[in-house]
Amino acid sequence: MERAVERDIVHTKELIVNMGPQHPATHGVLRLVLEVEGERIVKCTPYVGYLHRGIEKLSENLPYVSVLPLTDRMDYLASMVNNIGYCVAIEKLLGIQVPERAKFIRTMMAEMSRICSHLVWIATHALDIGAMTVFLYAFRDREVFLDLFEMVTGARLTVSYPRIGGVRCDVNNEFLDKLYNFIDKFPKHVEEYEVLIDRNRVWLRRTRNVGVITAEEAINMGLTGPTLRGSGVYYDVRKFFPYDAYDRVDFEVPLGKNGDVYDRYRCRMLEFRQSARIIKQCIEKLPEGPILAEEALKIRMPTAAVKIDKKDIEVALYIEDKSIEEFVQKYPEVYASVEAPKGELGFYVVCDGTAKPYRLRLRAPSFVHAGALPKLCEGGLVADVIANIGTIDLVLGECDR
Amino acid sequence: MTEFLIRVIITAIIALVYFGILLLHVAYATYFERKVIGHIQMRLGPMVVGPHGLLQPIADMVKLVFKEDVIPSQVDRVIFRIAPLISLVAAMTTFSVIPVNQGWYIGDINVGLLFVLGIAGLGTYGLILAGWSSNSKYAFLGGLRSAAQMISYEVSLGLSIVGVILLAESFNLTEIVQKQQQYWHGMFLIPQFVAYFIFIVAMFAETNRVPFDLPEAESELVAGYFVEYSGMRFGLFYLSEYLAMFCMSALATICFWGGWTIPPVLLKAWPWLGNIPGIVWFLLKVYFHIFLFYWIRGTLPRYRYDQLMLIGWKVLVPLALLNIVVTSIIKYIF
User: Fold this and answer.
1) CB distance B305–A128 less than 8 Å?
2) TM segments (chain B) (predicted)?
3) In angstroms, rounded to a whole number, what is the distance separating the alpha carbons of residues B249 and B204?
């Protein structure tokens, strides 16, 4: 009799909730299929690929320089870092030495990008948890950085500013002054966000001990960036494999302890300040000199007979087939990574001696982090899913590529 | 018989005027909300329609009325249509006994306070039925959340008012206001500050406002129980939410802030204050509470479902019970 009740009459089943791809809190087109028992998550399955544009495949059919704008479209919140990552990889492939000034400019721009990306993160993370005001405060500050990008590069989001062997155009004093003045004030603005959310009981309750991931698990899942550092693992590409001018600026890598949503939040909040510190140092130490490597000029010989001098480098868009060959003999394949705001962004390039990459493989942190979602969400409540999506800082453009 | 008919007609006219004014207040409460939150967030709020966006609520209403009313194919049609009306009627009926000034009311009944609480509780049915009949998972979760939330917070809301009832020795709203005049400060807020605190917290939960807006949590459940609604039916839910806010604010004003009266100590110091009509004081106090709703919405994140329950049952209810015990003892001794 009891068994009959169990089997037939009282039959409970998990409710399947399809969260996304269109959902206000999934940051684009992430789709999560949740099996919920009441409010508790029993199973969480992420589905990605709704924003797939085939960047890896497309780049096999493009000259090295023309791949650059594609990388803008990956993590569109920090396109500068993507560009730099690609350039660093190709420079490593071709053995190009980047001039000092370009290195410092790149470092500065990368950190500006990191601040921009983190600003969008804090804005949406707070909005998801319900604190609406932080969203507008953060976007106000982001606007300043986007305007600064526009001053130098002419674009606000998809900048395509770095070039293989340097940067596209030089920064002027007006830009540096504006940036320095704002960066000077910026840590105070960060404090403003902290006042709004960090000392707020509701925020603490929503983030502490939610989505806990231990150091070991984090490493096993391949997490990187603030998501890994929140668990207390000291790993930062900028410190371990310094590129650009990171070995000449002074900064700290903030670490968390418990690996919960709150610690990851703290890590990123501290990174704001470290980024501001790096930008300040870059402006102070910015050396004079060329902004594009000599070798890069040689490689950039256009096929059309356009006379080139250093000033109108922009005309140079194609790589001469022959000049690349000798480099390729030495380095047929290369992996280089940079510390993107989301985590370690890797570029693996296989070169077959032609002007186009044979294979370009991107290690997108968002993709790896999306894989950690089931671990983070299962056992939690529906509201925690939102906090977890926010805390791993997904950008689907990068995840799906 | 004719006398009775005339009384009915007069009451009906009063009710119509009352609700007309009330709905205008609700419309402009949305404007007020957008302005307050706008300024908290360092932007201007509506500025385009009319001077300083003053016609925005009218434009919104026109838009909502003329929108296509989509009823999804999988819903339970009858309940889907009735649900917003239940919410609205419940929210509006509460106002029939709320006095806004000495003698300004539609009906004056001796259990006014209980009537308001009872009818306000009925509004929950609208939310639950909307969530259930929509046949959508988000709406379903929203409906369940609202059911649980309303039940738990109604308890603490009711218990918090018991202290006031003990002091006023009456359920009649007008009498509650008059009893507060016996103090020099003219409000129950000071002897009943614990009850007021509980009332305010429960008030936010009852009206589904931040930080307790779980049934409609936009980042989790998209829009919660009214996710499938559109056009004016959606508008009706909105309307009833704002009406509920007004009702709760009015109740807080009457029970704790002395309604339309001003503290006797102020009146003694500045006698000319007595010339200002009571309705002005009443509205000022109500709008202070409305402002409180908006202020908190601009400041706080949202609680999680289990934390909401925890606060309701483990903090507010014991605190309210303690308040009743202490109030009773003090009342007995003095």
Assistant:
1) no
2) 6-32, 78-98, 104-130, 151-171, 183-205, 242-260, 272-296, 308-333
3) 10
Which positions in chain B touch A133 (Cβ < 8 Å)?
37, 40-41, 298-299
Say yes or no to pLDDT of A367 above 50. Answer: yes
Q: B46 and B53 in contact (C-beta within 8 Å)?
A: yes
Q: Look up residue B274 and give its two tokens.
A: 């007595």
Q: Is residue A143 part of a domain?
A: yes
| Residue A126 belongs to domain spanning | 55-400
The amino acid that residue B283 corresponds to is: L
Percent of chain A with pLDDT over 70: 87
Provide the phi-psi class of A104: left if phi over 0, else alpha when psi is between -120 and 50, else beta: alpha
Q: Is B224 on the interface with A (CB under 8 A)?
A: no
User: Does the distance separating the beta carbons of B220 and A206 come in below 8 Å?
Assistant: no
b/e per residue B175-201 (b: at least 16 CB within 10 A): bbbbbbbebeebbbbebbebbbebbbb
Secondary structure E strands in A48-185: 162-163, 166-167
Same domain, B250 and B319: yes
pLDDT of residue A306: 41
CB B64 within 8 A of CB B222: no
Determine whether the interchain pair B305/A381 forms a contact, defined as Cβ–Cβ distance below 8 Å. yes
B305: nearest CB among A23, A39, A129: A39
Say whether residue B213 is in contact with chain A using an 8 A CB cutoff. Answer: yes
Domain count, chain B: 2
* Secondary structure letter of residue A314 according to DSSP: G
**Minimum-distance CB partner of A200 among B40, B138, B301:** B301
How far, in Å, CA of A5 to CA of B332, rounded? 55
Q: How much is the ipTM here?
A: 0.80
**A122, A125, A132, A384: best to mutate for the B interface, most B CBs within 10 A:** A132
* Same domain? B228 vs B85: yes
Chain B: closest CA distance from residue A352 (Å) = 48
Instruction: Give the integer Cα–Cα distance in Å for A354 and A333.
Output: 13
Whether residues B219 and A386 touch (CB distance < 8 A) is answered with yes
Q: For chain B, how big is the Rg over CA atoms in Å?
A: 21
Name, in order, each residue with C-beta under 8 angstroms of A277's C-beta and a sequence gap of 6 or more: A249, A250, A251
Q: Is the per-residue pLDDT at B174 higher than 70?
A: yes
Q: Is A57 on the interface with B (CB under 8 A)?
A: no
Residue A218 confidence (pLDDT) above 50 = yes
Inside any domain, residue A230? yes
pLDDT at B331 over 80: yes
Which of B293, B244, B242 lies closest to B122 in space, CA to CA?
B244
Q: How many distinct structural domains can be found in chain A?
A: 1
The verdict on B48 and B111 lying in the same domain is: no
CATH assignment at residue A132: 1.10.645.10
Asked whether residue B151 falls in the same domain as residue B236, the answer is: yes
Cβ–Cβ contact B52 with A under 8 A: no
Clarify whether residues B91 and B149 are in a common domain.
Answer: yes
Range of the domain at B52: 1-66
